[in-house]
Backbone:
């Protein structure tokens, strides 16, 4: 098996993570916000997959199985979280007729 | 190992889960009464609490213990790297979480009987409780984060479950966005730690410490975890959501959030950061990037210590400026987290015991405070502090209970709030060095907090009520109060508030009842591991 340098893979997931954080902080449309969240979760999931494949062998786990199973569990978890988000979007749209986060400003000091 | 041997230690979790399923089943079959759902949840929680207390070895119940003593507080070398492990400190926290659930589900039975969505409310409270219980037994980073998320997802829905109310919906939206952001950050941090260590077991992370190399990955991983968990426990740069959410959510739910679910983040801090803070300092030199061996101890101590002091100060100063009762309580709740963080920074066994005691007392005080706010709102009194004028004359017993809660929050002797602050701050003084400054900051902040708690007391007892307070209630429908017993409070809510007042005074006068078990649990926790 050829050995791959981890740097490129890490650069990809850090880029995805940065995109996600930027998106969550700047997007005002709730759907795009959910997309950003999903990108962020996938950055973490990708990390688990790389590290499972290329990870240091000096560690407690002798093979990549834990990392891969964590990735599968997290995919399921991310779907759950987005489902709850969509439920909130639906309720928000029904009550205010808008899914723009900036429109919700009732709670203020 | 038979199936019973495997499953019996999880009896509290199973009981809570069965309660949730029963509530959902009855909801589907058309049961509408809130008393039915409430009794099921209260019953399941009470039984679970009984078994957890039995596991802690309290005498009258010790025979009921379901976890064999040989499986509690076992060191890493014996137990290997499992997903879960049983520790006495975990049981203490499970008991705290279950008390919060018990109080909230008991008090919520006083809402109007045929309220829509009562079954969903109790099912979500139960699900959140299940997540909190799992946090109590976690010994793996991913298990811990997923257990936190079980609670978090239930609470997003709880905050917004009165979806006809735009304020509650907005609070749910803000809570969801911030919660999901913190989830992404925590999981990304965890993935970097997995890369550095090749394992996510908290025992393993603690025992290897910085010796594994990859200092950049470790620092980034733990740094992101601090940020992610800080969102959950409302440390100051990450606190802005909490006030809006506690303000917008129904008061019963605010009580559950401030008194119950926020505490899981603190226990997660215990599990994740006691290792690095304590043990990384013993290896390596003072240079954090010294080849191969990482000495993160001082870094994390300074970061967490600064966060603690900033949190308590900012929370208190902002609480001083609030005009609405719920927002003031929310800021005071933020400042209390600062006190609790002192225990995590110092990380000696008295400090952990003090922080745990502070968490215990805060659970009762803050749950009680928000439940009183809910009760007062159901009497038709407005949200501003000035609306509470003369409550001491109109509702003497309720006002006395609230006064007790506020005095305990301020740390007046003979209340449990005094005991917990005393133990916590004296542990900081014992630890010497610059930790003494944490105690000084804590004491100064307690002094500040007396101002805004005292202001509420003054408004309640010494200001004359408005000449016609009933005029504000006038509306097409009579207020909820007219349908409920106990002068509009309802038996369940009134007795819950009374119970909280009794607990605050009892443990304030006889703290040794809980102090002993908590101290020994803290000692075992430091020796045996997460």
Residues:
């Amino acid at each position: 098996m050829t050995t791959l340098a981890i740097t490129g893979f890490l650069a990809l997931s850090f880029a995805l993570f940065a995109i996600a954080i930027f998106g969550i902080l700047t997007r005002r449309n709730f759907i795009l916000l959910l997309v950003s969240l999903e990108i962020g979760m996938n950055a973490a999931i990708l990390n688990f997959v790389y590290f499972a494949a290329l990870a240091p062998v000096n560690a407690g786990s002798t093979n990549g199985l834990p990392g891969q199973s964590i990735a599968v569990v997290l995919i399921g978890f991310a779907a759950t979280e987005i489902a709850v988000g969509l439920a909130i979007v639906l309720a928000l749209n029904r009550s205010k007729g808008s899914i723009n986060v900036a429109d919700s400003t009732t709670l203020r000091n | 190992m038979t199936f019973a041997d495997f499953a019996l230690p999880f009896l509290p979790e199973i009981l809570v889960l069965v309660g949730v399923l029963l509530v959902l089943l009855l909801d589907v079959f058309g049961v509408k009464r809130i008393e039915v759902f409430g009794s099921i949840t209260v019953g399941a929680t009470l039984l679970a609490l009984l078994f957890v207390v039995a596991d802690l070895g309290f005498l009258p119940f010790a025979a009921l213990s379901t976890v064999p003593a040989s499986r509690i507080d076992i060191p890493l070398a014996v137990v290997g790297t499992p997903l879960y492990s049983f520790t006495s400190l975990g049981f203490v926290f499970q008991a705290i979480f279950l008390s919060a659930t018990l109080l909230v589900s008991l008090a919520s039975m006083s809402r109007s009987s045929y309220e829509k969505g009562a079954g969903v409310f109790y099912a979500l409270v139960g699900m959140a409780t299940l997540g909190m219980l799992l946090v109590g037994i976690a010994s793996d980073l991913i298990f811990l984060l997923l257990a936190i998320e079980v609670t978090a997802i239930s609470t997003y829905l709880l905050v917004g479950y009165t979806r006809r109310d735009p304020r509650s919906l907005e609070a749910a939206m803000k809570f969801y966005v911030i919660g999901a952001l913190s989830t992404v950050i925590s999981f990304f941090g965890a993935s970097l730690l997995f890369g550095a260590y090749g394992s996510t077991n908290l025992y393993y992370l603690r025992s290897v410490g910085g010796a594994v190399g990859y200092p950049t990955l470790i620092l980034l991983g733990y740094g992101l975890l601090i940020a992610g968990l800080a969102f959950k426990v409302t440390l100051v740069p990450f606190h802005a959501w909490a006030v809006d959410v506690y303000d917008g959510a129904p008061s019963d739910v605010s009580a559950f959030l401030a008194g119950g679910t926020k505490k899981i983040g603190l226990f997660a801090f215990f599990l994740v950061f006691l290792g690095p803070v304590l043990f990384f300092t013993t290896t390596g030199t003072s240079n954090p990037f010294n080849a191969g061996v990482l000495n993160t101890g001082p870094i994390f101590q300074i970061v967490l210590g600064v966060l603690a002091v900033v949190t308590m100060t900012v929370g208190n100063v902002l609480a001083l400026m609030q005009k609405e009762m719920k927002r003031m309580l929310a800021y005071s709740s933020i400042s209390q987290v600062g006190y609790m963080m002192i225990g995590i920074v110092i990380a000696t066994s008295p400090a952990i015991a003090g922080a745990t005691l502070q968490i215990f007392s805060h659970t009762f005080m803050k749950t009680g405070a928000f439940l009183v706010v809910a009760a007062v709102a159901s009497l038709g009194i407005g949200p501003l502090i000035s609306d509470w004028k003369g409550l001491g004359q109109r509702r003497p017993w309720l006002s006395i209970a609230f006064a007790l809660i506020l005095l305990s929050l301020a740390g007046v002797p003979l209340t449990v709030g005094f005991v917990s602050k005393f133990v916590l701050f004296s542990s900081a003084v014992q630890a010497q060095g610059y930790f003494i400054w944490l105690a000084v900051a804590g004491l100064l902040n307690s002094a500040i907090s007396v101002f805004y708690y005292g202001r509420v007391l003054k408004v309640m007892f010494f200001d004359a009520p408005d000449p016609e307070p009933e005029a504000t209630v006038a509306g097409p429908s009579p207020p909820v109060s007219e349908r409920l017993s106990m002068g509009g409070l309802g038996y369940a809510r009134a007795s819950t508030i009374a119970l909280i007042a009794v607990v605050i005074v009892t443990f304030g006068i006889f703290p040794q009842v809980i102090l002993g078990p908590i101290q020994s649990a803290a000692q075992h926790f430091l020796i045996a591991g997460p």
About this structure: The helical segments of chain A are 6-26, 30-54, 65-96.
